[in-house]
Write a structure and sequence with these properties.
The chain has helices at residues 16-19, 71-79, 92-97, 108-111, and strands spanning 23-24, 26-31, 37-42, 45-49, 54-59, 81-86, 116-118, 125-127, 132-143, 150-161, 166-167, 170-171, 179-181, 187-189. By secondary structure, the chain is mainly β. The strands form 4 sheets. Strands 3-2-6-9-10-5-4 form a 7-stranded antiparallel beta sheet, covered by helices on one side. Strands 1-13-14 form a 3-stranded antiparallel beta sheet, with no helix packed on it. A hairpin with a 5-residue loop joins strand 13 (179-181) and strand 14.
Length: 201
């Protein structure tokens, strides 16, 4: 099968997201200029640089009450900061609950029954119970091709790690099994890992 996206795929569901998998989930917490906290998951998320450490996520939709984007991007435009909360398998239902489209100003933490913790380097809440958090300051907000496609890049200014998941000085992700997005409505968790040595190691 070959198709050009501009012509359509002819399948019951778009296969693009199922091809680019698995994708880590960035559970983005923000605080608006009005002080309201927001929490939403984004599966277009990844680390993009080591020094300084940087991450990105992309928002691909809009709300009528947010001028061509979603609450996360709107809040980030107002404040310049956000926190990435790493989603463990045990919090999959809470993460999913925060994906609902809700009126501006709704606190998804409260709606999903999640406790908040404060950040150290930015004015933002983070999700209690997550194995790790990345506190971020925006470096770029890039408008992408297509309607309401916006990429947000941030420098990581603070990192929280739950020490229960440090084994021999290394983060053991199999202990919390990070949730990843597949295609369609499918997800997976990382429970098994293996190592490969690079040829020049």
């Amino acid at each position: 099968m070959f198709y050009q996206p501009k012509d359509g795929h002819g399948l019951p569901h778009n296969p693009f997201n199922a091809i680019v998998t698995p994708r880590p989930i960035g559970w983005v917490s923000t605080r608006g200029g009005d002080g309201h906290d927001n929490l939403a998951p984004y599966s277009f998320f990844n680390a993009v640089a080591y020094t300084p450490p940087q991450v990105m996520f992309a928002s691909t939709g809009s709300k009528d009450d947010r001028d061509g984007t979603k609450d996360s991007v709107g809040n980030i435009r107002d404040t310049g900061v956000f926190c990435m909360n790493i989603v463990p398998y045990a919090m999959r239902d809470a993460m999913n609950a925060t994906s609902a489209t809700l009126p501006r100003g709704t606190d998804e933490f409260a709606r999903a029954g999640l406790d908040k913790l404060g950040c150290e380097t930015i004015d933002c809440a983070r999700v209690a119970g997550c194995p790790a958090h990345l506190e971020c300051r925006v470096t770029q907000i890039v408008t992408l091709e297509g309607p309401a496609n916006i990429a947000v890049f941030g420098e990581v200014t603070g990192i929280h790690i739950d020490e229960r998941y440090l084994v021999g000085g290394m983060l053991d992700i199999t202990l919390y099994q990070p949730l990843s997005r597949l295609g369609y409505r499918d997800y997976t968790r990382i429970a098994d890992v293996f190592s490969l040595r690079r040829p020049d190691d």
